[in-house]
From TrEMBL:
The lineage of its organism: Eukaryota, Fungi, Fungi incertae sedis, Mucoromycota, Mucoromycotina. Pathway: Protein modification; protein ubiquitination. Residues 218-241 are annotated as: Disordered. Residues 277-591 form the RING-type domain. The chain crosses the membrane at residues 405-423, 435-457. This is RING-type domain-containing protein.
Length: 662
């Protein structure tokens, strides 16, 4: 012990010298370097650093702090390194994958993990580019102790080993673990009472700390240099307490919101009983009180909030008719109403926050698409596209040209008719048809006019949406002139952005391919998380295919697959051993877990997949719009082929004319 203390004191003295030469250096890196040299270690380490251009690993700094901005707590260093790696250096890499890499190293976290990821040919990608949630951060020992103790108070009916297993499955995050335990249920009233009196005890600090897989900075080194001031450790504990208090407030606010909604519901019921007359919604024809109704801007039509919510949700995530719409029109069946729904009422009273945010995002994207601004999706750098005239200016010129073309067309048709009538009057035979064909062949202008008229009559069965076709042609011309790829001119960015889907271009690019794959990966991950289990000791995730519900991890930890309880002591006594007349039927003599039977996973997987799909499509309405429409599969008729050919020919004629104008 004395020799070890002497060596530690010597290393501390040498590290202090290195810190004078290289301020802000990583203490773990210096300590690791000292193990390679026995004589003149400071001089030899300094020589290596100078030969490396003066570059050496530094302790991660926190720009938000005042004074000494160097982070001394290891958990905070890991989280700051995780932020740098997951948001700046590798924004497309899976956060869990980066976190597992970080926990393997004792120093130079950013350098070593970045070097390892750069050497890999491919790494797992994440769902949302550059996003890092608070639940993805590494939790400190103090946070874990508080989370386990609080969950034991929140769910006294659940075994503590089951709580630790659920925490391990959710990266020791209190909020996610709280939600999962709530979904698991309690197992009945009498089970709750029995577990409360038989298994309740105040949480022990020693037992909780033994589960930690993140050693503290003080345990990894007896040096006082790494934590040379006691108030720094106190500040770190205060930060951990604030972090847990923030998550605790999330659960409390959620409970208050639920209580507020229940109170509002009861108040509405009381209000309905007190009202003498109710007002009828002009959409669903249900009777409601005035607080549940909203009038259009004209004040002539009234609708309930539920009908308006369904209408806007379908317009944003379904058919897409309201994406980018500047006003939400009245949904009355009377076509003569020019009213709309006011935005302040929709935002504050009718719509939920996620639906309103999706509507605002659709307006922003639509305005950006029509603003002729090329924008980098990575840094926000913008440029004005001057390759084409604005669409409004082009339409004004096109209207003038179209008006002149109509008069020219009428005059030429009159000329043809008069010529044919004179020829027929003089010759009085049927050869005037041949003369008409010769006029069309030898007069190209006449041929183009007649050909255009035939296309206009044939296009879409005579129903020609000129405005929509002009916008389509304009987009084709603009894309052909400026290209579909925009390179950012910001010297710190220089990334490529697709102007069609506003996504970063990597290699061979296909619009919305990332979102389609993201939907699939998000649903698959939710389906896997619905049935997986995680060992609270070593963090290994697994899923049972067959066999009994007694699971023994490779680290020796034994748990029940159903309730996740630690059964290292009771073993098979944890499971029910009563005989049943009907195999698979629930036992009527005890509430123990079955040895082989588990909850039906198909229902849990289907439920998780449907929920994940709704969440993803709600957050990405552009993917919902790009979903394939279910149409009747079969051969195309000749009439449909002719109509499509006529429409494309008309678009070609419009494109040639508009290309000359813009």
């Amino acid at each position: 012990m004395g020799r070890q203390y002497k060596n530690d004191y010597k290393n501390d003295y040498l590290i202090a010298q290195l810190l004078v030469l290289f301020p802000g250096g990583d203490l773990g890196y210096f300590r690791s370097c000292l193990g390679y040299y026995e004589t003149a270690p400071v001089e030899r380490i300094a020589e290596k650093i100078f030969n490396n251009g003066g570059h050496y690993p530094r302790l991660i700094t926190n720009d938000n702090s005042n004074g000494d901005n160097i982070i001394h707590n290891r958990t905070q260093q890991l989280n700051q390194a995780l932020r740098l790696l997951a948001t700046e250096f590798f924004p497309d890499c899976n956060v869990t994958y980066i976190r597992e890499k970080l926990l393997k190293y004792e120093h130079s976290y950013v350098e070593q993990v970045a070097n390892e990821l750069l050497q890999e040919k491919a790494y797992p990608e994440r769902l949302e580019y550059g996003k890092l949630d608070r639940s993805d951060l590494i939790k400190s020992d103090t946070y874990r102790i508080h989370a386990e103790a609080q969950l034991a108070i929140d769910y006294p009916q659940v075994w503590k080993s089951s709580i630790r297993a659920v925490l391990a499955e959710n990266n020791w995050d209190y909020v996610k673990s709280y939600d999962q335990l709530q979904d698991m249920g309690s197992g009945g009233f009498w089970t709750t009472i029995r577990n409360f009196f038989r298994h309740w005890s105040f949480p022990s600090t020693s037992s909780s700390t033994s589960l930690s897989i993140i050693p503290s900075a003080s345990s990894s080194s007896p040096s006082k240099i790494f934590n040379n001031n006691h108030n720094k450790s106190d500040n770190n504990k205060d930060d951990d307490n604030k972090e847990f208090e923030h998550d605790l407030q999330i659960i409390r606010r959620r409970a208050l919101d639920i209580q507020s909604k229940e109170d509002a519901k009861i108040a509405l019921e009381i209000n309905e009983h007190e009202y003498d007359e109710l007002i009828t919604c002009q959409c669903c024809y249900g009777d409601y009180v005035i607080e549940q109704l909203t009038f259009c801007s004209e004040g002539t039509h009234v609708f309930c909030h539920e009908c308006i919510q369904h209408y806007i949700s379908e317009g944003l995530f379904g058919q897409g008719s309201l994406r980018g719409a500047a006003r939400i029109p009245c949904i009355s069946m009377e076509n003569d109403c020019d009213g709309c729904f006011q935005h302040d009422i929709l935002e504050n009273i009718v719509l939920s926050q996620d639906i309103w945010s999706a509507y605002q995002k659709s307006i922003f994207e639509e305005n950006l698409r029509h603003s002729k601004i090329a924008r980098c999706s990575a840094c926000g750098y913008c440029e004005l596209d001057e390759s084409t005239l604005p669409l409004d200016t082009a339409l004004q010129r096109l209207n003038i040209i179209m008006m002149g073309a109509r008069w020219i067309m009428v005059l030429f048709l009159l000329y043809i008719v008069m010529t044919l009538l004179l020829y027929k009057k003089e010759n009085n035979d049927s050869s005037f048809v041949v003369v008409a064909l010769l006029l069309l062949v030898y007069n190209p202008l006449m041929f183009i006019i007649v050909f255009t008229m035939v296309l206009m009559l044939n296009t879409r069965f005579g129903q020609w949406n000129l405005k929509e076709d002009i916008e389509t042609v304009y987009d084709r011309i603009a894309c052909a002139r400026r290209g579909s790829i925009f390179q950012c001119r910001n010297p710190e960015c220089r990334r490529l952005t697709c102007v069609l889907c506003q996504h970063i271009v990597r290699g061979l690019h296909k619009c919305w391919e990332k979102e389609q794959d993201g939907l699939r990966l998000y649903v698959e991950k939710a389906m896997a998380d619905a049935v997986k289990r995680t060992c609270p000791v070593c963090g290994l995730s697994f899923q049972k295919e067959d066999g009994c519900n007694k699971i023994v991890c490779r680290c020796g930890y034994t748990m029940c697959y159903v309730c996740r309880k630690d059964i290292r002591k009771e073993s098979y006594a944890h499971f029910c051993d009563h005989f049943r007349d009907m195999p698979g039927a629930p036992c009527d003599r005890c509430k123990k877990c079955d040895l082989y039977k588990t909850d039906p996973e198909d229902e849990a997987v289907t439920r998780a997949a449907n929920k994940a799909r709704r969440e993803y499509l709600r957050a990405h309405p552009e993917v919902a719009a790009s979903q394939p429409n279910h149409v009747i599969i079969g051969p195309i008729s000749t009439f449909e082929k002719l109509n499509d050919w006529g429409h494309e020919s008309m678009l070609w004629v419009l494109q040639q004319a508009l290309d000359f104008i813009v």
